[in-house]
Amino acid sequence: MSTLSPTAPANRIDSIDALRGIALCGILLINIFDMGGPIAMDRPLGPPAIADPDWQVWGFAQIFITGTMRGLFSLLFGVGLLLFVGDDDGADRSRLYLRRLMILFLFGVVDSTLLLWPGDILIIYAFAGALALILHPFKPYQLGAAAAVILMMLSAWGAHEAGAITPADTVYSAEMLAREGAARLGSYWQAFDYLSWVSWQWTVNALTYRWVADALAFMLVGMALHRLGFFGAGRSERTLRRVMAAGYAAGIALRLLHMTLVWHNAGAPMMLAGLIDQPGRLAMTLGHVGLFLLLWRHGAWPRAMARFADMGRMALTLYLGQSLMGALIFSGFGLGLWNSLSWPALWLVALAILAVQALFARAWLRRFRYGPIEWLWRWGTYGKRP
């Protein structure tokens, strides 16, 4: 029965925690745009302009951050699955993991309703994690092949969808903006009513299948890399450099092309942009992983890495905390800053939130073994207090 217990903090892999912390920070840099502005827009309201600071931030994010931090988080979720289940083919670990996913789903429901965040990813991870659990006995090449097939299908879907989108479809009308503004700048219950409806519409939409497949593909990539020992201390520095160089070379080229196509189509995607989005995103994500592991191996920025590791250890608490802080800052029952800040200003808000969270994580983990939500998660998973 000793195997059916939470991982002790002393046995955690610090590099994985730090990488998860970096992904958590990067995710907020993207989510903050929907928290502080129209929930269903992935671009600034105005037309593309090189001199517009909003579009400058958008361009930088499109190349280096958008989708890659979510990809990194999904990749690490797959690694976490294998660390939890291990190579035990018995039912106990799998049964516990399914219970863990059910609790994660409930956290996602809270996030997407009570915490007013329709962009929640926890529900998606609960579904994708269950599928990844079925595939976890696969060998690395099988996991990689399954991920490749899923990503090719998603690329085809993305290209088909992009072909039907016009620039006007990517921008809120004045009527849509007024309707959402009235809800999000109103009382808590007005915001709850509107954003819960958005969450429900997005969850029951066929696009949910795409989000689940998206998360699953990157989970499988993470599982394959872990099975190959990529995150282990024995992985050669030469391999890490090759992954970093190849990932960035392909990722930057494809994402620059993707950004240019969208830019010259008045901010709307095109079929080619949809087709190259997933390959570019995967390549850039792997480039980030290679760079991080090289920096970690050489002991770079130890204080910053320690703070990222703290945040990674309580990523679920901080992720939900970001939704709460976003609601308090931007909603009408809080500071009421919704749709009033530029994209650069929104990044400053995100950095302030992350700074507060880094300090909170450090202080909390000095006194406790787990973050508060992680503690509840473990209690629900194992049926006993951690």
Folded structure, characterized:
It is a single chain. The chain contains 15 helices and no strands. It is mainly alpha-helical and 386 residues long. Helix 1 packs across helix 3.
Mean pLDDT: 94
Category by helix and strand content = mainly alpha
For the largest beta-sheet, the strand count, sense and barrel status come to:
none
Q: What is the beta-strand fraction? A: under 5%
Which ranges are low-confidence, i.e. pLDDT below 50, for 5 or more consecutive residues?
Answer: none
Q: What is the terminal-to-terminal distance? A: 15 Å
Radius of gyration: 20 Å
Helix amount? over 70%
Shape descriptor: globular
Number of strands: 0
Helix count? 15
* Helix/strand order: HHHHHHHHHHHHHHH
